[in-house]
Amino acid sequence: MGVISLFETNYITSEFVGLRNYIDALTSPDFRQSIVNSLFYCAFTITLGTFVPLAVALTAYRYSNAYRDIVRFAFYVPSLASGVVIANAWKWIFDYRKGLANYLLSVAGAEPVMWWGHQVTAIGIISLIVVNLWMGNWIILYLAVLTTVRKEVIDSARIDGANWRQIQTKILIPLISPWVLFIMLMEIISTFQIWENIYLLTSGGPANTTATVVYNIYDTGFLQSRYGVASARSVILVLIVLGLALAKNRLEKRN
Amino acid sequence: MKYLIFVLILILLFPLYWMIIGSIQPSAGVMKLPPNWIPRNITFINFAYIIKETMILRWTINAIMLNTISLCIQLFCLVTAGYAFAAYKFVGKQVIYWTFVASLIIPWQGLLVSRYILMRHLYLLNTWFAIIALNAFAPISFVFIRNYFEKIPTSMIDSARIDGAREIRILFQIILPQCKPILGYLALRSYLIAFQDFFWPMLVLNDKRLFTLPLGIVHFLKTFTSTHGLLVLQQLLGYELAGGVLLLLPAIIIFVIFRKTFRQQFLAGGIKA
Hints:
The complex is a heterodimer of chains A (about 260) and B (about 270). Chain A has about 260 residues and is an all-alpha fold. Chain A has one domain (about 5-255): Orthogonal Bundle (MetI-like fold), CATH 1.10.3720. Helix content of chain A is about 75%, strand content about 0%. Chain A has a two-stranded antiparallel ribbon with strand order 1-2. Chain B is about 75% helix and about 0% strand. Chain B contains 15 helices and no strands. Chain B is elongated and about 75 Å long. Chains A and B meet through helix 2, helix 3, helix 4, helix 6 and helix 10 of A and helix 1, helix 6, helix 13 and helix 14 of B.
């Protein structure tokens, strides 16, 4: 890949161009836009994918085993259905003219929204779809960590007069925070690689505002057949993800 | 808080529910606003159309066969490699292990273009080899298996050796029976993924007869839109939802049959998909 990225190639001919593909990648507006978009996605996936499961797990932890099982199962079900399966259902729910979401808005007396036509709403919905597939795993992970707390610890805290909020903030959250960081980084890493939902739902539009880095690589490499440029962009993606992964290892070591 | 979570669950599961009820109604009923919250006039016309118009049976068999082949190769390589890591000390062991771990960190999409070009140069495009070659060597499964094998006490291997068992026999009669849970989990996971993944197959396969189920259905929906235009929006919706249900079915069947294994994984803690 490193080698290809140094050539201008379209399969039939290839010519050595040195670092031109990298310069091209770093100066091309659509690639830079895709990095910015990915960061935008991250904002959504981190809140939805890290903190919502945390809140759910902390709540479920408080209640009976049966309740925990229901929560675990209900959140796990969507991860059986992949993005391909469920993307079309979401697409129609947020359709402009015929969609359920706009219908509910009109019942409430609000103006219909072009869900797929604005960057913020489109990115928000795609993030929700992606996060939905992972949430169950994270909730299971959080609950597994939480159940390692011995009952006596919580009971003795209770006897000392701590209320549930104090138990949560002083015992449970410090315990779980390394995992929160871990999941956050996992979310960031996987966010840069969102591809299939974009392919199925927006094709990167409107005006390239919902394309992630991987979608951009697919677009340059396979739709425009600029393999050399796409390889250079892949190298940049690998470097970004490697950097994040190293940061993750650092954090794991420190904890 | 407790009830808020139920609301959240309802919202997140709603598209799934809506897809299922939508697929068994005539298309006009799905488009209606307000929608039918409970399905009416149940019909399987959407499914019938997809089954009639496409090679869906063949695609399903393709997906299963393809995955079975790559799974067999994968598990054989990984089990023997895992055994070597557990039973021997050799030079470069750590280097090899960390090479595998490092290749996990690199996103596979980043290697996409070079892999595609490699397959092209090997003249493997539009053949199953292009897919099997990739799936057969999954570093994540190797890391799983190696970590599992590490836990098997070496004294067990040593005592078998003293009793005169050959290496192959130790592997297949002593080690392997203990590895059933992890092997079963890896196998299930690979079948679930086989009914979801369509990116790489889409790039390398052209021939409709070679498609796997997810690729076939996505392809059918995309071509249906481009040949019929948007005039048939209602039918398209029905087919999209039915296609989704058809893709979901294998996963549900696998989950129901093997729910015990999944449950064990629940109890074991985190699942890394």
